[in-house]
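Re: Re: ligand-bound prediction request (bumping)

Still looking for help on this. To restate: I need the protein modeled with 2-phosphoglycolic acid bound, output as structure tokens. Inputs repeated here so nobody has to scroll up.
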Amino acid sequence: MHLTLRQLKVFESVARHLNYTRAAAELHLTQPAVSMQVKQLEGSLGAVLFEQLGKRIHLTEAGKEVLGYARNITQQLDELEAVLNRQKGLAGGRLRISVATTANYFVPTLLGSFSRRYPDITVSLDVTNRETLLRQLSENLVDLVIMGRPPAEADVEAEVFMENPLVIVAPPEHALARVKKIPLKRLQEEVFLVREPGSGTRIAMERFFSERGMHLRTGMEVGSNEAIKQSVQAGLGLGLLSRATVDQELALGQLVVLDVAEFPIMRHWYMVHRRGKRLSPVARAFRDFVLSEAKQLIGQHPARLKPRRRINKDDARRPK
Ligand code: PGA
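Reply:
Sorry for the wait, this slipped through. Here it is.
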């Protein structure tokens, strides 16, 4: 019998919800990915686990048996993890992290999952812009930082863990909302709302347009992603934001992403710490957790699937 723990976890979630869509949302997977895991588990076990009666799915007799075992196995593993964590001195530890304003749209999901795995760890989280993060690193005020790529001259170690596409958003009634392949130059006729100086998003935006010899008309300078979204909805201008910040507004039809040539600009997220810093067991556990799980927990969320069009490797070309 060849089965994986992942298949058992996915199966347990579907069996609990008796619904593939809800299980997919809980696991941050797509629905086809969930169905595939269940199919593979059925294949390995040589048993059918669900049956469809009308619109609803039900557990078969074999499914009920497997569910009991799946829960036991998961519980045993959780216990094992807790025992090992205690041995490693992780219990009762404190984690001090600072994250870029924009990263705060996905960091709570990571922290939620991390805290379930290490319930005894206390987390102190600061949310601030790029400039302040760099200062906190140089003054050794935090264990770890999550930010866009730090400048090459900063005395830090940085590991990439996830993509961060930047997109241009407009209100749904905007003249360009339905236009396909908008030429970059057309943006010069629009007004843009920009983040405060010191924001990584703003730095990436300015670099992108200045490299192309373009000068954008900027309207209000706005100190947060939330305020930019509100202002864009109010018709005060276009916004250039991380795709992760607008999931909800896009789903509700309050904003649209414009189909602009050369977009999205592809930035990346990095896990950063001061070079030579001895990370505590807790900080090491969090770093390893994010590096190995973030993509799965956040990146595969259906709302965040990679854009299909060609992307601009902003980070790949420049060290900032
Ligand atoms: P922020 O961004 O400082 O604009 O919130 C993060 C980054 O992309 O560096």
